[in-house]
Design a protein that fits this description.
This protein is an alpha+beta fold and about 400 residues long. The chain is built from ten helices and 19 strands. Strands 6, 7, 9, 10, 14, 17, 18 and 19 form an eight-stranded antiparallel beta sheet that branches. α5 links the parallel β4 and β5. α3 crosses α7 and α8 packs across α9. The protein is elongated. The N terminus and C terminus are likely disordered.
Length: about 400
């Protein structure tokens, strides 16, 4: 089993401080009427003639060649090192006949994944870390790269959404016989996020935590940054510009845009947030939309009031809470360098232009996650199958 220990720390990127110009932001989100192309799924899984029979046999032979497994290990993820677990996982996969390489350098991983995917040898890239590790892999690997989640981080929200644990035997079975699940991803200032973007108090806490981070973190690591934000965060006004809830798929004009003034902003692709909070309970990773939730008033006391509303599931009915579904939005502020966070990691400072990228993420998931219909592919046959949908009970 090959090991590469010379690389840097996964999850660290100079792009975290990227601040786009207005021209760059307009290129990312040129109009509020952004409408992504719908995927053409006509004829999916149908065999109409002998030529398709030949294509299916070719695909089956190709699947047998997919023996390379790349394990992307974030050495700083979670409260303790996951190296021992990753070593055990690698040994189990080698026992199943896979060629396993553990990589800690993201540039090395990106090059190896691209080459293996292009040659038809890649079975999976395993994200051994937290949500930030999975997002980094999605950003640095080509679309269509199958990603399997090995949750070793602090929150592991994506793994919780998929009901995946750090059970090694289950992950080995998933790599051997799992199914491919396609989900939407979000994009903020040109970088992918899998779960959510936050702007406001939570982003300030994330910024403070990571500015002082030197190694592993756990939930108690957030205590001091939270206290610092309680004493020092000033709740600047945030302006959100988004298209309206238009599910027709037709282009809209500027009259369809909506401007919102808020002090807290949350944008979600999936219905998961730290601590199990259901801020965006209706977010659906397969609907081609992002869910937006804003709170109007600042101060820690209003924050506690909003928290109680989220816990009781009543916040969406309050007058100072605005919720929308949108494909594209911008968040701005005139209050200087206001931070935002992406999947629990620092994202940079405002302004930020955000949009949805339908079917951008490919995940390798266990067979046991089959709840409702969604087009996926079986890794054993590469044939379309039915498996997880974001409208299944897993979305709760």
């Amino acid at each position: 089993m090959l090991r590469d220990e010379a690389g840097g720390v996964a999850g660290k990127s100079s792009a975290l401080l990227f601040r786009p110009s207005e021209r760059q932001a307009s290129q990312i989100c040129p109009s509020l009427s952004f409408r992504p192309k719908a995927a053409d799924t006509s004829g999916c899984g149908k065999r109409k003639n002998g030529r398709q029979d030949d294509e299916l046999r070719t695909k089956n032979r190709t699947v047998d060649q997919k023996k390379r497994v790349l394990v992307s290990l974030n050495p700083n993820a979670g409260a303790r090192s996951g190296q021992t677990l990753v070593d055990t996982l690698g040994d189990r996969l080698v026992g199943r006949g896979f060629q396993v390489e553990t990589i800690t350098d993201i540039d090395h991983l990106a090059a190896e994944a691209e080459a293996a995917l292009a040659s038809g040898q890649l079975r999976a890239v395993i994200s051994a870390g937290g949500d930030g590790t999975a997002a980094l892999i999605a950003n640095r690997t080509p679309q269509g790269t199958p990603i399997a989640v090995f949750p070793l981080g602090t929150e592991n929200l994506l793994a919780k959404y998929l009901e995946v644990t750090a059970d090694i035997d289950c992950l080995v079975d998933t790599v051997s016989h799992g199914k491919m699940l396609t989900l939407d991803a979000g994009e903020a200032n040109g970088r992918l996020f899998l779960l959510m973007v936050g702007c406001g108090f939570d982003a300030d806490v994330v910024r403070r935590l990571h500015s002082e981070r030197t190694g592993h973190i756990h939930h108690l690591s957030y205590a001091r940054p939270i206290l610092d934000s309680i004493w020092n965060y000033e709740y600047p006004e945030l302006r959100v510009y988004c298209d309206t809830d238009d599910t027709s798929g037709e282009d809209s004009d500027e009259s369809d845009s909506l401007a919102i003034s808020a002090r807290w902003v949350f944008v979600g692709n999936l219905p998961r947030y730290a601590g199990g909070l259901r801020i965006l309970p209706d977010a659906d990773g397969n609907d081609g939309f992002l869910d937006l939730c804003t709170f109007k008033e600042g101060s820690i006391w209003n924050g506690l009031r909003y928290l109680s509303g989220v816990i009781m599931g009543q916040h969406q009915t309050w007058e100072d809470c605005t919720t929308k579904r949108t494909r594209c939005l911008r968040i701005e502020s005139e209050a200087g360098e206001v931070p935002f966070q992406m999947d629990g990691d620092p994202g940079g400072v405002l302004p930020v232009a955000i949009r949805i990228l339908p079917d951008r993420l490919t995940l390798l998931v266990p067979h046991g996650l089959a709840r409702e219909t969604s087009t996926t592919h079986d890794t054993a046959t590469d044939q379309p199958s039915t498996v997880l949908s974001s409208k299944s009970p897993l979305a709760t």
